[in-house]
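Human:
I keep going back and forth on a fold encoding question. Comparing notes only helps if you start from a blank page. Show me how you would write down a chain together with its backbone fold. Write it directly below this note and I will take it from there.

Assistant:
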Amino acid sequence: MLQDCISFSPNIWRSLATKTFSHSFLRLRATVFTIEDEELSHLGTAVYPDVALINHSCLPSVIVTYNGTSADVRAVRDMNPGDEVLISYIDVLYPTEDRNTRLRESYYFTCQCQECGSQSSDQAKLKLRKRSDPAEAEVINTMVRYARKCIREFRVFKNSNTPASTLLEMCEQSLDEMGAVFDESNVYMLHMMYQAMGVCLYMQDPDGALRYGEKIAKYYRKLYPAYSLNLSSLYLKLGRLYFGMERNSECISVLKKAKAIMEVTHGKNHFYVTELDRQMKEV
């Protein structure tokens, strides 16, 4: 009987099959976790159905890290019995509008958390350069649009085998343009500095990478939560750079900061933490 129905109206059944597949694909996509190493380099993807049940917040109470094939959920702030366990699905560095754009594009919802409701961090994240003649609102809005355009275009060029020298030039040009309106701590400035740091590392330019990395670290400490993987991974990168330059005291200093974060996010017995201990003893 089912075959008769399919034969009678194949287009309808094809449409239903397509919709069912699309719905299933979107549900699967929303439950896939990106597996990264201690420096947030991509290792692969995995599905953890139980962890995927945890709701999102831009003020997460827990963080998900990985130990072999297992996903660990660890608290990153004090919690009381009955508190909801919340993770962040996205990078929380960015202002409210950008975070929710990302959530709608990837997870099909708008966040209603306390941070999104109050937008209390947006002013610091979008800090403007101090000027004797403050920039007008339209100038600021135009620069925000320019910054978002630069981020999108850089991503496209980065994924299309563009020469590293061209990518670095794109970063430097955008930083010059944005710097006329934005403070150095503005998250759009930090985004392009981070990209520039990555390009410098690829080009084996440790001085350039360190110059950008030290600036970024100064502001990441203020803008990210205390136990942020983004911050610990930056400290590890800086530690590697200091070690290569034989700046041992500075190397130990940033690695200790990374370890303090990772003992909470990964646990004291995690391989990454024990390996970090070993590396610190070799400095």
Notes: The radius of gyration is 22 Å. The domain at 126-222 is CATH 1.25.40.10 (Serine Threonine Protein Phosphatase 5, Tetratricopeptide repeat). The longest helix spans residues 10-31. The longest strand covers residues 42-47.
